[in-house]
Amino acid sequence: MRLDGKTAWVTGSDSGIGQAIAQVFARAGADVLVHYHKDAEGAAQTAQAVRAAGRRTAVLQGDLAGIEGVRRFAEEARAAFGDPQVLVNNAGVGSTRSRSLDTPPDEFLRILQVDLIAPWLLCQEIARRMIEAGSGAIVNVTSVHEEMSLPGSAAYDAAKAGLRSLTRTLALELAPRGVRINNVAPGMIATPMTASRLADPQAAGQAARQIPMRRPGQPEEVANVALFLASDAASYVTGSSYFVDGGLMRNIGGA
Hints:
The mean pLDDT is about 95. The protein is α/β, with parallel strands linked by helices. It starts with 6 loop residues before the first strand and ends with a helix. Helices cover about 45% and strands about 15% of the residues. It contains nine helices and seven strands; from the N terminus they run βαβαβαβαβαβαααβα. A seven-stranded parallel sheet has the order 3-2-1-4-5-6-7, with helices on both faces.
């Protein structure tokens, strides 16, 4: 699976899954725009890996928790790096409380903004240009929580389920125009976001018992699926979610 001659934008590529996607894409021949919100050092490390693979890169900071911030990022990214043939909406935030009803409205709205509205705005912006070019691929990073509910996580669950529906609707509209869009839905992956849980032996053991493969996934295992969906190997694939979860969805009876 190759991305030779293609340019990819990967949001949230300063660590974890996004960093792995950027690195895997670069090794597959893509030039990669690296985006971060706060972790400048992590973004620099990602860019260094992209350059080590012999590919072109640029690093851009951007807060995607507001409409103007997303638009500013898109304008700066286009000026610095040109239009992408591949867009990966990976940036996300989460919050788990003991009760979802305790979630403050501003926190709920921020999660929706970063995890759902920002991907929508970037899809809207970039898909129009992909239509003009007659081709392109969009990969949205959702979660098993696009399907599976987690107590205390109403905002995150709602955002990921919304992104699933957004992807399905856009797939119907974009397919006749040569543009594909799919989701990668990770389960428990060993990233900075899950580090505290995996560091707790009791919590890690409980999580592993729910996963048929009895272990968390690695970011590269998600990135490899994203590479497939971004590449021409997936030329007849659109509107689908690919769960990278060690069998978790089957264990809990998910769709």
